[in-house]
Amino acid sequence: MFGRKKKALGQIDTLVGANTVITGDIQFSGGLRVDGRVCGNILATGDEPHAMLVLSEQGVIEGKIKVPHLIINGMVKGPVHADQDIELQPNARIIGDIHYKTVKIHEGAAVEGKMIRQESLQTEKLITLMAPPAVEQNKSTENPE
């Protein structure tokens, strides 16, 4: 009842309109939709696992993108890092490498660059089995004779 409510994945808090041009970096949390043009890097701030960027069909981003969740249907010129998932819709055009955990690519999307899958960071457990210490038995050999 009291306290902050968690934001649902897919909720858009901020909109960069179709006739808007932003020159400079953008840091955001929550949801960001870009219908205009951004000449700069776009980064999700902090440990916001639900942060999502949506780039619409008319949107253009020239710079690095680093977010957990990403949907692209416009043009990106620069490297893309999606810590969780990325969806490339039919009009997506990316010039740059894509780093992703999971990806969904629709027919018609185009990528000029490498697609690099990021393995989930799992802590490997190293177990070393050691033999129990040898127990010396003091056997007395008695000769019953």
TrEMBL record:
<comment type="similarity">
    <text>Belongs to the bactofilin family.</text>
</comment>
<dbReference type="Pfam" id="PF04519">
    <property type="entry name" value="Bactofilin"/>
</dbReference>
<protein>
    <submittedName>
        <fullName>Protein CcmA, bactofilin family</fullName>
    </submittedName>
</protein>
<dbReference type="InterPro" id="IPR007607">
    <property type="entry name" value="BacA/B"/>
</dbReference>
